[in-house]
Amino acid sequence: MAIGDKIQNRFTAYRDSYTGVTVERLTEPGNVSHHMYFYNRMSTADGKKLLYCAEAEERRLYLMDMETGEAVQLTEGGGLDDYGGILSSDDKYVYYQQEKVIWKLALSGLERECVYRIAEGWTGDSWTVSGDGRYLSVIETLQESLPKREEGAGWDFFAKTCLAKPRCRIVYVDLASGTSRTLLEENCWLGHVQIRPKDPDTIMFCHEGPYDLIDARLWLVQSDGSRCRRCREQPDDLILTHEFWLPDGSRLAFVYRETTGEKREDIRMINPDTMEEEVWMRCSPYAHFICDRQNHYMVGDAQGSDVPIHLLDTKQPGEADGGKADGEKPGETHKERTVAEQPQEVRNDFIYLVDVEGRSEERLCYHGTSWSAAYGNPQDSHPHPCFTEDGKYVIFVSDREGTPCIYRVKLQQKGD
After folding, report:
1. H or E stretch including 162?
2. What is the mean pLDDT of residues 389-397?
3. Less crowded by CB within 10 Å, the N or C end of the chain?
4. What is the pTM of this model?
């Protein structure tokens, strides 16, 4: 198949056994499919089209019409960053990285132009585009400083890469002038670069790696390389994770999880100008969470086990030591279960919806994913819940029916 070709997705729906909501599966089991990384802009403003990845011979990006299921192929060939696609704020372009080049693809005509080329000998591991499309920031890592990663490796790479202290740098690109500059370069694994909304001079990033091996996760730096600063201290028994900017850029939000003592779990926020921290609300053990553009709701994916994701067994649940996952029958594996055969007792593998005004959470639906790293990318079965741009749907990924597929749940709108 080639760029511009179309495929047809067939939607199926079922009623969630635990909350009663209708869940639609947008892609079909058999080939791995997933949406973009959860804080990327991946749907059009009207919420009708979704940027996603499907694996058929190779991983490719597609733009799906979520009313009809028809999807247009946007990429071909290898070397694709299959989680890194971003829709421009005017819905006219898709930015994506392939073969160490960040491309800008026009959705009318499907012609592309190179907007940034990763330097020879470096990789582009995390990147983002500002809301106005003017600036790009990317984290580059010197390839020779990375430990060798075996094909099909699971989460064992996480600690190995952190301990290797690879040479990383944050590059800031002015797409209008084509100029770029390095803001920070150090022997530390850097990740999750995010440009602050409405203030493209402030960039958030993290020190990546297991919580007990890093000095602190949350960091900020200015676009001229000045004022590199830690947002808060982080003792080695505390997990701070999956930070994101609120849509107005006023604060950054993150999950605070204690691994000892009370094992408290909070949503917290930090004002980047004052570093004042707010304990916003108690929450379930989210692995990832994000808010909608309207700031009406947040959504998080709870992890049934309190073992951090990178420490989970990479095998399917029930395969290790002959044991079974909660609710599974003898001789049955998680991947063999169908939607109709959900266990009567399950772990807390639910999608949670948070009412921002009420600061309260409730179960939205059961995601039931295995969290397995067995599909080719350790992220593939992570739910990564997020909202469509119009705030009407929650989108998430699960391998509950055999391979990672994309699902959605329609939300009741405020005022309905």
Report:
1. helix 156-164
2. 98
3. C
4. 0.91
